[in-house]
Write a structure and sequence with these properties.
The protein has a 7-stranded parallel β-sheet, sandwiched between helices. Strands 7, 9, 11 and 13 form a 4-stranded mixed β-sheet that branches. A two-stranded parallel sheet has the order 8-12. The mean pLDDT is 92. The chain is built from 11 helices and 13 strands. The protein has 346 residues and is of the alpha/beta class. The longest helix has 22 residues. Strand 4, helix 4 and strand 5 form a beta-alpha-beta unit.
């Protein structure tokens, strides 16, 4: 297993979380082979190894080969169980389940053309997991996105009570609309007595993403490795919040342990904000090889450029009140992500 992934798992396992909530319990992670949710699997099993927490981990995913690549060394462990199925189908598991983390659903930019699959994986998938939570009397965490805020009337840090405009007939909004719809489903089930909580993470930095994934920060790394330069298709001014993957995972576990049913929590750190140009320049400075930053004007009129939200940053006060605190600065988060791909040394 990659050294960075191993270190990250130990960081989460050693974090100041109320681990007693999870001891001797069963946790199901849906979408387990994704680059963020895989960290729950690694960290919970590391917690068992290091602290004897006896957490049973159920990894739900649909691709056996990808599961083998991510979790091959765990096969045969009594505290690990693989559930192979599509989350769009009802989930049938005979044993007890205490916590469910719904991190399923395509998020990669390269998959954004699969509109119906994106929508149904998020909405039908959430529905099936909420039904499972109801039958098992489990606590469910739905991993949403800051994309649900849409276009705010003015450039502010979004708070959980704020809602901007989101055109449901714009193809690039399918993912955000699916997350909004799934959040509403969580509300419906909460009113029916199911304990479900919502996390709205900003852009999460970390290793384990395919280099052709299409997400902005991964695209920058891909360019660095292939071309020894970074080409920006826009003007570089859009501003984003970033969070290292271990801080995101500890934040979500904090919501599961300490959060309130029916509530949404932003997952961000106000200090880790940067424009696209600033992020590219930081990567250029940290790289082992000389990397230039330039502009590619040929894509300036593409909808992906012209319709991008100019600012996506959020307020983390609500989550911090639960005792959570981010650990990694933007510089260190970028350094660790780049080290995973061999673009720099720790």
């Amino acid at each position: 297993m990659n050294k960075i992934i191993v270190e990250d798992a130990k960081t989460v396992a050693d974090a100041a979380i109320n681990w007693s909530i999870f001891e001797n319990r069963t946790v199901l992670i849906a979408g387990a082979t994704g680059y963020v949710p895989q960290n729950f699997v690694h960290a919970l099993l590391q917690r068992n190894d290091g602290y004897g927490s006896r957490i049973k981990v159920l990894a739900l995913c649909r691709n056996k080969g990808r599961a083998q690549a991510r979790f091959g060394e765990y096969m045969g462990r009594t505290d690990f169980h693989l559930i192979l199925q599509d989350v769009r189908e009802p989930v049938d598991y005979e044993g007890d389940i205490d916590f469910i983390i719904d991190a399923a659903g395509p998020a990669a930019q390269k998959e954004r053309g699969l509109y119906s699959e994106i929508f149904l994986a998020n909405v039908d998938g959430c529905h099936n997991l909420l039904e499972l939570a109801r039958s098992k009397e489990a606590v469910l965490l739905f991993v949403s996105s800051v994309d649900v805020y849409g276009h705010l009337p003015e450039p502010i840090r979004s708070q959980e009570s704020v809602s901007g405009s989101l055109d449901p007939l714009e193809p690039r909004n399918v993912y955000a609309c699916a997350k909004r719809a799934a959040e509403t489903l969580c509300l419906c089930y909460k009113e029916a007595g199911v304990d479900c909580r919502i996390a709205r993470p900003v852009m999460i930095l970390g290793g384990g993403v395919a280099l052709d994934d299409g997400r902005m920060h991964i695209d920058l790394i891909s360019q660095m490795l292939a071309k020894k330069k970074i080409s920006l298709t826009g003007d570089g001014t859009p501003r984003r919040s970033f969070l290292y993957v271990t801080d995101a995972v500890t934040g979500m576990l904090t919501i599961l342990a300490e959060g309130t049913a029916g509530e949404a929590y932003n997952l961000s750190w106000e200090e880790n904000e940067a424009s696209v140009l600033e992020l590219a320049q930081l990567m250029s400075r940290l790289a082992d090889a000389e990397i230039g930053v330039e502009y590619d004007l040929s894509h300036r009129q593409d909808p992906a450029v012209t319709k991008a939200v100019n600012q996506v940053v959020s307020d983390s006060a609500k989550l911090r009140k639960l005792g959570w605190q981010a650990k990694y600065s933007l510089r260190e988060a970028v350094r660790r992500m780049m080290a995973y791909y061999g673009a720099c040394r720790i």
